[in-house]
Amino acid sequence: MAGVSAKNVLTGAPDQATTGAISSAPSGTTLPTETVGPFDPAFVSTGYVNEDGLTLNSERSSETIKDWSGSVVRQVLSEFNSTLTWKHLETNEESLRNYFGDENVTVTAATSSQGKRMAALLKATEMPRKSWFFRMKDGTSRCLIVVPDGQVTETGEVVFTKAGAIEWPVTLTSYPDAQGVNAYFYFDDGLILTAGIAILATATPAAAATGAQVTITGTRFTAATGVKFGAVAATAFTVVNDTTIVASVPAGTAGAANVTVINAVGTSTALPYTRG
Question: How far, in Å, are 67, 112, 149, 186 from residue 154 at the CA level?
Fold first, then answer.
């Protein structure tokens, strides 16, 4: 049974440096599956988001099935809807496209007499469907949410005051992809395994004669370069995976023949074993 760990209590701070934590790209763009880049350059950052962050909302509705007596015997999913909401804190080309619609925003490059100009049209326009991802971090931990098919379906109230930043609130509705998935969630705790000598746990059977195969379990076996029974190298061994090796017992005198595994770092601590 898994224990409790405070390291698994995560916050949702944005993972951003020179780019923002929310990006979008045309539908069909290669989607990320790792919490860190590089990402397809078609994805464009939308800049800062306000302190309320990102809100995920999933709604499920069910239809009730009753038997002849009126007892509920089953609930059948009848409707599912998933949305993400946030408020753009920056007024830039991408935040305006998300709020007004791509086709309703035009940008004119700066000239020697005028700065960069943006014009937006507010009208009844159906927003484009795009691919999106959202990046978060907490220390070394990372979280990535990927929406393959998302559309801005609501835009909220914008307040213009001297005392506060202009914010552009949007609601993104996610649609199922070809696999029926509305959003993919990827997590990485950032705890990278460090190189070291192999660590041995078990060797079975408990005793074996020359030529018999012994299954050794432990960790850091992937790059193993040798297996020994006592001072004698195994006649053959196979690395099944990082935690399992199968080795043949070499010739020798019956009795104690502690098992060790060698890798590029060094030789493991000996695991007591008996040669039959």
Answer: 40, 38, 16, 26
The answer to whether residue 2 scores a pLDDT higher than 60 is: no
d(CA 238, CA 156): 62
| pLDDT mean over 184-192 | 83
Per-state percent for the chain, helix, strand, coil, to nearest 5: 5, 45, 50
Map tokens 């993919």 to a residue. Answer: 184
CA distance 244 to 217: 5
> pLDDT tens digit string along 205-262?
999 999 999 999 988 898 899 999 999 999 899 999 989 999 999 999 899 999 999 9
Nearest to 171 by CA among 45, 60, 82, 61: 82
Q: Which residue has the tokens 């074993």?
A: 273
Say how many Å lie between the first and final Cα of the chain, rounded. 37
Other CB atoms within 10 Å distance of the CB of residue 95 = 24
Q: What percent of the chain has pLDDT over 70?
A: 97
In this structure, the strands spanning 141-155 and 129-138 are: antiparallel
Q: How far is it, in rounded angstroms, from Cα 94 to Cα 81? A: 25
pTM of the model: 0.69
3-state secondary structure of 166: coil
Q: How far apart are CA 44 and CA 25, in angstroms?
A: 6
Which two three-digit tokens encode residue 69? 């007596």
Distance CA 199, CA 218 (A): 5
Q: Compute the distance between CA of residue 32 and CA of residue 186 in angstroms, rounded to an integer.
A: 10
Give the integer Cα–Cα distance in Å for 147 and 234. Answer: 51
